[in-house]
C-alpha cells in the first residue's frame, strides 16, 4: 500500500506537469495566431473556443476509453501525452504552414482550418483526466477525492504554466524554444510514467 500511495502521489505531480504544458501551449499558440492574423477577437476566439470544445470532447473520449479499457488507462494516458508532445513540438511549423496555405482565403476558412488544427491536441488533453480518475478510483474508492485531487493539481499546473510562460519563458526563450520546452515536458511525463509503472508491475 505504501508503494501504491506513493504512486498515486506521483500521478498527481505528473498531472500538474501536464497542466503546465497545456497552458504553455494555449498562450504560445495564441501568440502565433496574433503574429499571423493580428491581435483581434478572431485569434482569441479560435484558441478559447477550441480549447473548451476540445477539453469537453476529450472528457467524453477519455470516459469511453476508461470504460472500455479500464486496465489500460495508464498506457492510453502515456500515448496521449506523447501525441500531445509530438504535436506541440511541431505545432509552430504546422500553424505557419496552414496560415500560408490559407492566407488568401476568407476569414471563415482560415478560422475553420485553425480550429481543426487545435481541436486534435485539445481533445487529447481533455481525455487525460477521466483516464487518471479511473486509475485513481481503483485504489481510493472515492470518486470525489479522485477527481478533486487530480483536478486541483492540474489546475495548479495550469496556473504555474501561465506564470512561467508569460514572465519567464517568453523573456529568455523565443516562441519555438518555449514550445519545445513544453513538448519536452510531455515526453518527460511519459518516461516517468513508464518507469514508475514498469517498476510497480514487477
Describe the structure.
- This protein is mainly α and 202 residues long.
- The chain has a single domain (15-197), classed as MFS general substrate transporter like domains (Growth Hormone, Chain: A), CATH 1.20.1250.20.
- 91% of the residues lie in helices and 0% in strands.
- The chain contains 6 helices and no strands.
- It has helices at 2-37, 41-68, 73-101, 107-140, 143-172, 175-200.
- InterPro entries: MFS_dom, MFS_trans_sf.
- The chain crosses the membrane at residues 46-66, 73-95, 115-137, 149-173, 179-197.
- It comes from uncultured Campylobacterales bacterium.
How many beta-strand segments? 0
Helix percent band: over 70%
**Average pLDDT, to the nearest integer?**
89
Shape: globular
**What would CATH call the architecture?**
Up-down Bundle
Main sheet summary:
none
Q: Please work out how many helical segments DSSP would assign.
A: 6
Instruction: Assign the structural class, choosing from mainly alpha, mainly beta, alpha/beta, alpha+beta, or little secondary structure.
Output: mainly alpha
Q: Distance N terminus to C terminus?
A: 15 Å
Protein name: Major facilitator superfamily (MFS) profile domain-containing protein
Keywords: Membrane, Transmembrane, Transmembrane helix
InterPro entries: MFS_dom, MFS_trans_sf
Organism: uncultured Campylobacterales bacterium
Task: Provide a quick synopsis of the model.
Keywords: Membrane, Transmembrane, Transmembrane helix. This protein is mainly alpha-helical and about 200 residues long.
